[in-house]
Amino acid sequence: MTVGITGPTGGLGSAIVDEILNRSLVPTSDLILITRDESSAKAKEYAAKGAQVRKGDFGDVSTLGSAFKGVDSLLIMAPGHHAGPHGVKYQIDAIEAAHEAGVSKFYLVSNVAAKAKSDFSPAEIHYEVEQHLEKKGYDFVSLRNGFYLSVVDTFLGNALKSGTLTAPPDGQIAWIDRDELGQAAAHIITGKYKTNGKYVDLVGSKSWTLKDAADILSKVTGKEIKRQEVEPQAFTDGAIAAGVPEMWARLTTAIATCAHDGDWSKTSGLVEEILGHKNKSLEEYIEAQYANKA
Ligand SMILES: NC(=O)c1ccc[n+]([C@@H]2O[C@H](COP(=O)([O-])OP(=O)(O)OC[C@H]3O[C@@H](n4cnc5c(N)ncnc54)[C@H](OP(=O)(O)O)[C@@H]3O)[C@@H](O)[C@H]2O)c1
NmrA-like domain: from which residue to which, for each copy (predicted)? Predict the structure, then answer.
């Protein structure tokens, strides 16, 4: 069975590919990596290890038929900000080109917060792509990912400078290390770990609030970090006034407001079960990133 992976040189994609290669989860020649740039350092590294590396760009459908030829099972990477306003179209175009080329099983990079209406716009994009697969009746598994631990930096960088973590009222977030997420995904998309159902939550086994994050940062740096709650609109306006592009200001606000609604609160032991060890915790992440930085 051949396994195709789009987005193989990005952060999550390369964690998936590295795990497949390091653990020989499929014969290397059955691994087909579809990237926008076959001449990148990562693409060359994977080709040198024996993977098939092909050019494919969701924004240029003429590249996709040959890219997906001979692929049995395919991971569709969400292109995120790289797709600009075309997030849904790019993924649907890729899915349809893959179906046409004979792909029989799809794995989707989605988000645990995926839903029809959300302040967090990527959640709507993921949901729409999932719904496309549902309507078409294709065989698929949606990997509903949690927030990467590194996203907490969005709040902690400023907090460390000012001594105050300012954000709208939030809720629990089951943060997860991106590499661990990718490693677990590698076992699922190669069929080495069998999941049940079409939706699989790849989230942390514990959850934390931004107040917890502020307290951990205080402990790690020895500098007192207070947690200040502000109204969402005031937070967005303040970020824009400070020079943050409007789209990012809105997304950052939505991280807190959607967390407040419980969108990222789900925890799961699945990633730990697949990898056979505990998830990296928020405490470990903040210690590694911020110790000696006050
Ligand atoms: N869960 C979270 O906390 C979180 C945080 C940030 C983002 N995300 C989402 O998860 C995705 C993966 O995260 P990441 O950290 O790996 O992001 P990333 O490092 O930016 O990688 C995304 C990859 O998507 C591929 N891609 C982009 N545009 C494409 C196009 N037009 N056609 C085909 N492939 C395209 C690229 O792979 P190649 O360069 O190999 O072509 C790119 O490297 C993101 O794209 C975003 O949707 C999730």
Answer: 2-286
